[in-house]
């Protein structure tokens, strides 16, 4: 089992990323982490669609972003085709914490702890054993459980880079691209093509303000996954730290840390922050309008 604790991180991870979440105020109100009680049969809105991702070994990270790369083996898993929507979150949790409102918008303003609690509640509704044992702010992951959970950082990047369709290779990425980007795209077409795959600073202005946008509004990557770049940052399971120096298998991050990893960038960010290897992190109690999540399951 993996535990979520709060000792101090090492290396560059201490200096990473809260700024990428977009100048946010920390909200750390008391958290209701127990799964709410609902009828056994969930409505259609509470049944997420997941995609199967065949496992493989890839080189995680990119040289272009001056971070250590690591050979990572990922077992087969499932991941939701979209970020968790407000309709789904409300159906499961009985409330909608989002700043921007709309049933088909990604849920936002959820902490990492609340995302973990949602995963357990959804598992209970689906008749699956919860993946997490939650005791206040102590979260233990039962890695054998088939319940819903947050993807690991390695799973998230592998899926964003299209798994066996695009992540495999003998050399680290010299430069990372947004999710769904063809490797042969020219510099001149890069921004134009990004507008077709993700919501970010250049295309997320509606009624003179930037905001989240309905899921599945842009093209998916080759795995059928939408919004892996942009719309909202997505919480991952891992504590943030430098990657290990040696190859890893089903890596789930260090045993503890200060910040939880988030990936993918948001509607608020520039295109350079939407690449498939960009990492940031924040306190697991942090929540803001730029931040949501998607869910995963063991394969």
How would you portray this structure in words?
There is one protein chain. By secondary structure, the chain is an alpha+beta fold. It has one domain: Alpha-Beta Complex (paralog of FGE (formylglycine-generating enzyme)). Helix content is 14%, strand content 18%. The strands form five sheets. A four-stranded mixed β-sheet has the order 13-12-10-14, covered by helices on one side. β8 and β9 (209-210) form a beta hairpin. It is globular and about 45 Å long. It starts with a strand and ends with a strand. The relative contact order is 0.26. The model is unreliable at 5-19 and 21-42 (pLDDT under 50).
Number of strands: 15
How does the overall form come out from the CA principal axes?
globular
Derived from helix and strand composition plus strand pairing, the structural class reads alpha+beta
Query: Please, how many helices?
Result: 4
End-to-end Cα distance, whole Å, is 17 Å
| Structural domain tally | 1
* Biggest beta sheet attributes: 4 strands, mixed
What's the CATH architecture?
Alpha-Beta Complex
Secondary-structure element order, N to C: EEEEEHHEEHHEEEEEEEE
Widest sheet, order of strands: 13-12-10-14
**What is the helical fraction, as a range of percent?**
10-25%
What is the level 1 CATH name?
A: Alpha Beta
Are there runs of 5+ residues with pLDDT below 50, and where? Answer: 5-19, 21-42
What would you give as the CATH superfamily?
paralog of FGE (formylglycine-generating enzyme)
Task: Tell me the radius of gyration.
Answer: 18 Å
Strand content: 15-25%
**Which fold name fills CATH's third level, the topology?**
paralog of FGE (formylglycine-generating enzyme)
Mean pLDDT over all positions: 86
């Amino acid at each position: 089992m993996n535990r979520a604790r709060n000792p101090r991180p090492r290396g560059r991870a201490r200096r990473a990323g809260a700024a990428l979440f977009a100048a946010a105020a920390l909200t750390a109100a008391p958290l209701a982490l127990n799964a709410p009680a609902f009828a056994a049969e969930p409505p259609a809105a509470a049944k997420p669609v997941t995609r199967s991702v065949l496992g493989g070994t890839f080189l995680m990270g990119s040289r272009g972003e001056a971070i250590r790369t690591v050979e990572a083996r990922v077992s087969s898993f499932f991941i939701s085709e979209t970020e968790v929507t407000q309709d789904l979150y409300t159906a499961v949790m009985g409330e909608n914490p989002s700043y921007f409102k709309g049933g088909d918008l990604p849920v936002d303003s959820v902490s990492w702890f609340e995302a973990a609690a949602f995963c357990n509640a959804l598992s209970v509704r689906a008749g699956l054993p919860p993946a997490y044992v939650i005791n206040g702010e102590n979260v233990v992951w039962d890695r054998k459980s088939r319940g819903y959970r947050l993807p690991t950082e390695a799973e998230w990047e592998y899926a964003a880079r299209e798994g066996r369709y695009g992540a495999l290779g003998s050399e680290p990425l010299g430069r990372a691209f947004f999710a769904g980007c063809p490797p042969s795209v020219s510099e001149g077409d890069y921004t134009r093509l990004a507008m077709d795959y993700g919501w970010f600073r250049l295309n997320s202005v509606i009624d003179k303000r930037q905001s989240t946008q309905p899921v599945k509004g842009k093209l998916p990557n080759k795995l059928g996954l939408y919004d892996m770049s942009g719309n909202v940052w997505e919480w991952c399971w891992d504590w943030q730290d430098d990657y290990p120096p040696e190859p890893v298998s089903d890596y789930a991050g260090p045993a503890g840390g200060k910040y939880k990893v988030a990936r993918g960038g948001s509607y608020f960010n520039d295109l350079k922050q939407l690449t498939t290897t960009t990492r940031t992190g924040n306190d697991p109690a942090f929540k803001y309008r730029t931040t949501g999540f998607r869910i995963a399951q063991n394969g």
